UniProtKB/TrEMBL annotation, chain A:
Recorded catalytic activity of this chain's protein: an aliphatic primary amide = an aliphatic nitrile + H2O
Domain Nitrile hydratase beta subunit: residue ranges: 141-236
Native source organism of the sequence: Nitrosomonas halophila
Record's keyword annotation contains Lyase: yes
EC annotation from Swiss-Prot or TrEMBL: 4.2.1.84
Superkingdom: Bacteria
Similarity comment text for this entry: Belongs to the nitrile hydratase subunit beta family.
Gene3D superfamilies reported in the protein's UniProt record: 2.30.30.50, Nitrile hydratase, beta subunit
Coiled coil start-end: none
Annotated function: NHase catalyzes the hydration of various nitrile compounds to the corresponding amides.
Enzyme class: lyase
Span of domain Nitrile hydratase beta subunit-like N-terminal: 1-122
GO function terms (MF aspect): nitrile hydratase activity; transition metal ion binding
Protein name: nitrile hydratase
UniProtKB/TrEMBL annotation, chain B:
Family label: Belongs to the nitrile hydratase subunit alpha family.
Name assigned to this protein: nitrile hydratase
InterPro entries given in the database record: CN_Hdrase_a/SCN_Hdrase_g_sf (IPR036648), CN_Hdrtase_a/SCN_Hdrlase_g (IPR004232), CN_Hdrtase_asu/SCN_Hdrlase_gsu (IPR023900), Nitrile_hydratase_asu (IPR018141)
Organism of origin: Nitrosomonas halophila
Coiled-coil boundaries: none
Entries under SUPFAM superfamilies matching the protein: Nitrile hydratase alpha chain
């Protein structure tokens, strides 16, 4: 199992922080912006074909999440949210050969000596226009594939328990649990790439409601329901 | 670096090194990151969600449409282009009432409806919140200052597929006759994720009464 898939429900944790800031360090904005730019310049987007960027990779939320889920689980909890992004994204650039470890280390040393040293002055309005255009149009996972939903509202379903994969969209606490289809979402939804446990191709998604007693037993709180949007591939009929 | 190692200084230098190399290699430009940040400061942020909530509070027909077909209702409002853009492709609103309290969580990552709420705050991204909110939401909410009686049903929404949820909070008492602008000013991002209620600040109360 991967601990990162089983975060929901972990016990013995301290009180939750109610830190309302989005960024707690100024540098965090930079890695956030870099990630957004990568998604906006990803080579799977049609609009990017005419954009003069040297970025030629497939990069989505799925890739960032896969990196975080692939971390040593104990390290995962040591690093703050954007520290994980920084590690994952710089790792990607090194592994893909865009930059070398030597370059990154020596440039890091330069900025460690003087963090106010300026950035290179390179302008290219076509790249920036695509990044903003991506933010305005998105990359919708909804598709018009003709798929017939296997379940209807009110059906009792059991969540499958597929073997662990690098990256998945099934919260661990739901595995093998029974829920009721609350709503069948219109249309079909793909995922950025096949994860190996069933999702990727266009398929229906459902809003499934679970009684918290059925999931947490005597650890539950009263009068509580859990609603989760689940890909069809993760659900099976109650009789199977 | 061993003794004087400062985690934040190192990350700041590392990310700046990365950004400068990406600029030099023609992947992004010197303005790209600033454009992204500016987009979330000016165009897409919780100020949009607050206007939607205020409209729903004063217009029952709009509220009904918002809950039945969230994207269509939002499209009727005059926001900058992009309300169905990145992380807003499939948004849905869910209403708090005197009988139901909704709380949104993303246990496996940090999915968040950017066009209406902007970027997720740290509490929402914190693994501790993500671990606990799905199992002991009342206890977590109590730590956040919100006491939900047992008679009120708690619905926790785990955003683990492609739908981005946000909460239409309850309109607080003492806001009768307020304009949409006045109402929007008291709606917080936390209230639109179910982590807080909308309250009338003491000074606003006095202002309201004197008007």
């Amino acid at each position: 199992m991967k601990l990162q898939h089983y975060i929901g429900g972990l016990e013995n944790l301290e009180p939750s922080s109610f830190e309302k800031r989005v960024f707690v360090q100024p540098w965090e904005k930079r890695i956030f912006g870099i990630h957004v730019a990568m998604m906006a310049l990803s080579n799977h987007l049609d609009a990017v074909k005419s954009v003069p960027t040297q970025f030629d990779s497939f990069w989505t939320w799925g890739h960032l999440r896969k990196g975080a889920e692939g971390m040593n689980p104990f390290d995962y909890f040591k690093y703050r949210y954007y520290e994980k992004w920084l590690g994952g994204i710089s790792g990607f650039y090194l592994e893909s050969g865009y930059i070398s470890a030597g370059e990154l280390n020596s440039r890091t040393g330069l900025y460690l000596k003087d963090i106010n040293a300026s950035l290179p002055e390179v302008q290219n309005s076509a790249i920036d226009a695509q990044v903003v255009e991506y933010l305005r149009t998105g990359d919708s996972p909804a598709c018009h594939a003709a798929v017939q939903p296997k379940f209807k509202a009110g059906d009792v379903v059991t969540v499958r328990n597929p073997p662990p994969v690098e990256h998945c969209k099934l919260p661990g606490y739901l595995r093998t649990k029974k829920g009721i289809i609350d709503e069948v979402y219109e249309g079909a939804y793909n995922y950025y790439f096949p994860t190996g446990d069933g999702i990727g191709d266009p398929m229906p998604i459902y809003n499934v409601v679970f009684n918290s007693h059925d999931i947490w037993g005597n650890l539950t709180e009263p009068n509580t329901k859990i609603y989760v949007q689940v890909f069809e591939a993760y659900l099976e009929d109650r009789d199977q | 670096m061993a003794n004087s190692f400062d985690r934040e200084e190192y990350s700041a230098a590392r990310v700046k090194a990365l950004e400068s190399l990406l600029i030099e290699k023609g992947i992004i430009t010197a303005q790209t990151v600033d454009k992204v940040i500016e987009f979330f400061e000016k165009d897409m942020g919780p100020f949009n969600g607050a206007k939607i909530v205020a409209r729903a509070w004063v217009d029952p027909q709009f509220k009904a449409r918002l809950l039945a077909d969230t994207p269509a209702a939002i499209a009727d409002m005059h926001f900058p282009r992009g309300m169905a853009g990145a992380e807003g492709e499939n948004m849905r609103a869910v209403a708090n009432t005197s009988q139901v309290h909704n709380l949104i969580v993303c246990t496996m990552c940090s999915c968040y409806p950017w066009p209406v709420l902007g970027l997720p705050p740290y509490w929402f991204k914190d693994p501790t919140f993500r671990a606990r909110a799905i199992r002991e939401p009342r206890k977590v909410l109590k730590e956040f200052g919100l006491d939900i009686p047992e008679s009120v049903e708690v619905k926790v929404w785990d955003t683990s597929a492609q739908i981005r949820w946000f909460v239409l909070p309850e309109r607080p008492a003492g806001t009768e006759g307020w304009t949409e602008t006045q109402l929007a000013a008291i709606v917080t991002p936390e209230s639109m994720q179910g982590a807080a209620k909308v309250v009338v600040p003491a000074e606003t109360k006095t202002q309201g009464e004197s008007e």
